[in-house]
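Self-study notes.
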Amino acid sequence: MTQANVGFENYWPPIAKGRYFGPFLGRSNPPSVPSNAFDDYVIALEDELEVYDKPVAFLHGDTHLHRIDKPLYSKKTNRMFENFIRVETFGNPDTHWVRVTVDSSDPQVFTFKGEIVPENVSNHQTK
């Protein structure tokens, strides 16, 4: 768990960036990203995931754009690591929560579900 959003998209291979950013940027390549404080961390994480086949969950806040995805790619295959999942929490002004289920009998081990707090819904109407 971290507070910071590491920005895994900055480390994607060109083909993944093209698929994701293409609808927004057209055929042009996304701008290059300068080195940052997370480079060594992400490289070490990628290296470990290349040889580790059990589920790994990475939870963070920071940008608070709630999402559950698989944002890290193998440098060997240019495909996402299927055993790595990122969960970004809700945050102000969308204050809700994420249900985490851990089931050791499930090969995926972790299940995440965004839970909406009715009183915090932007179009919530009081009676």
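Second protein, same conventions, sequence then structure:
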Amino acid sequence: MRIVAVVGFSESGKTRLVIRLIRELKGRGFRVAAVKRCSHGFSLDTEGKDSSDFSRAGADGVAMIAPDRWAAFGTGTTADVDPSRWAGRFFPGADIVLIEGGKDVAGLRKIEVLRGGSTPAASRPDELIAIVADGPRPGTAVPVFGADDISGVADLIVAQGEADMTEIRLEVDGHEISLNAFVQTFIEKTVVGMVTSLSGIDPEPRRIRLEIDRSGGPVAKGPKP
């Protein structure tokens, strides 16, 4: 899965670029999903509908399923929303996920849309992979594409390597706990460090399963992975 964020200031043309990229990439046979980050919030609940009643009753998450589409939404702080983790969870069959917005999210590969030749790029240099602008930008360290060079931008996205996404799930007494990116990284580094220090363990393990049972009862052993 390739995950790329299209970032830029308001009215810069991010949405138009994402729409055109979806059409271009779909035309090439790729499975494409899109995620929009809404800094000012949003609501899919329509007053008087069942989904609104579920939310007002206190449901932590609500999903709507129809024969030809589905939608799910829940509550949480911005720190809990890791777009890469969500992409892997909700769109596991996608080849490419385009995220509109997310210039403040660390670790995402970003294409920044700029208007006006004097506007500097706001993305971190180590995350910026391209700029889409309305004119040349001399001295720029990444490729610069014109607003209508959709094929060129799509070529760049396709050339990106697969995103490395470590999936960490935490369940406490049967309830799945949401983990933000910092906590996931901390758990991964701690557990992997302890496990790989043991004799006979592969220094680059691909899957680790750890279960802590404090109930005092017999431990039920499941099948080996």
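Instructor comment on the second fold: Strands lie at 2-7, 32-36, 61-66, 69-74, 96-100, 109-113, 128-133, 144-146, 170-172, 175-177.
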